Amino acid sequence: MPMQPNHELAVFENPNQQRDYTVRIEIPEFTCLCPVTGQPDFATLLLEYVPNAFCVELKSLKLYIWNYRNQGAFHEAVTSQIHGDLVNRLEPRFLRLTGRFNVRGGLYTTVTVEHIQDGWRAPPRVELA
Prior knowledge:
Elements: E1 11-13, E2 23-33, E3 40-50, E4 54-56, H1 58-66, H2 75-90, E5 94-104, E6 107-116
Antiparallel strand pairs: 1-4, 2-3, 3-5, 5-6
């Protein structure tokens, strides 16, 4: 079992490819380094996706996220990089990644990046009374 960061995102075949469903993953312990000061930045990442052919394997996602712990990155850049890597590997119908960064200098930063597969439309929302 690997105990080191790994830049590979493992996937497995979507067991329900004929159906749209949403996978939500909360990553509350994301860290990277401020590229200006070198101080740590902390965030909660919220990943939501509607799989197409593949789903992300959770252990590999954890090790992939660990890669950023000692890397300098602006909030916008790191959120976009992770989003791009996930979209490239999963080719999902829909994927949204939100980075909610903890306060730094009195400011909170939230960055949201979305991908929508060409031709895919979300089913209408059902409201129950």
